[in-house]
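Suppose a colleague, Dr. K., hands you the sequence of a protein chain of 131 amino acids and asks what its three-dimensional shape might be. Before reaching for any lab equipment, you can write down a predicted structure in C-alpha cell form. Begin with the sequence itself:
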Amino acid sequence: MRKCSHYIAVAILLILLVGLTIVKAQTETPGVLNKTPFEQIDASIDFTQRASMGVTLSSVTAFNMATNRDDTASVIAGSPAPTVTGGGKIVQFRLKGGNIGQRFNIKCQVTKADTGEKLEGNLTLIIVAQQ
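The predicted structure, expressed as C-alpha cells, is then:
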C-alpha cells in the first residue's frame, strides 16, 4: 500500500509539473498577444534593454497582416492615448476591436533620449473567439 501511494504522489507531481510548463509556454510567447473583439486591453513594449536613458514616443501603429492595411484607428485606442511610462522606457497603449481570426502587427517607433537613435518594437496581436 505504501509503495502504491508513493507512485501516485510521483504521478501527481509529474502531472503538475507538465501542466505548469504548458501554461508557461502559452503565456510567455514573446511578442504575441491574444484578445477577443470585445476586449479593450492595455499592452506595452519595453525598450529598457535598448534605451537606458529613456525614449520619446513617435508612433504606435497597427497593420493588418493579411492585407498590410493600416488599421491603427480601429485597433489602437485614442483614450487613453499611447504614453511612455516606466522611467521613460516603456510605451503603453490600449488595444481594441478587431474581428476573430485577424492578426495585426503592432509597431511602436521611438527616439532614444540620449543619442537621438530611432528604435522600433513590435508585437503580434491575434483576435480570438475566447480566452
